[in-house]
Amino acid sequence: MRGRIPPALCLAAALAALLPAACARRSQDLHCGACRALVDELEWEIAQVDPRKTIQMGSFRINPDGSQSVVEVPYARSEAHLTELLERVCEKMKEYGEKVDPSTHRKSYVRVISHDGTKMDLSGVKIDGDVASSLKFACESIAEEYEDELIEFLSHEADHVKDRLCSKRTDLCDHALHIPHDEL
Q1: Radius of gyration over every alpha carbon of the chain, rounded to an integer in angstroms
Q2: Which of 1, 22, 109, 121 has its CA 20 to 30 A from that of 182?
Q3: Is residue 98 over pLDDT 90?
Q4: CB neighbours of residue 102 within 10 Å
């Protein structure tokens, strides 16, 4: 019996070795999902603003020649509007649920309440307060840490902002190639 390791100890060691990888993947899935949901919500909010609405930007000082260096820019993608949105957009995470891909066991986060009131397919979606609060916390962390990048990307109309921001710029989604490109 001497020198032989008990099976229970082997099992415990194996589980202990796998636990950090599982937690890391869960954290990555959560942060990737929060980033993608954050961008979706910001883009939807931007689209709701009247395109004719403008805001004055620039210096309100009067130049020596009597003119001012003030320009009007579209409000929807202005820094002022984007900053305002970033302060409140993470509240929308309570409208999301967690869906686990049966083949990869990766988690993604999907809206459980549509913007326009249409019925949604919620089969396989876990809806609970823990999911919503974890997603909201991750969203707030991302919004704070990557505020400048979010404003930079969203201040101009661009394609594939989710992929460019969440995968390439922040590395929050290193597996983004396997996530379906959804539309709001």
Answers
A1: 22
A2: 22
A3: yes
A4: 7
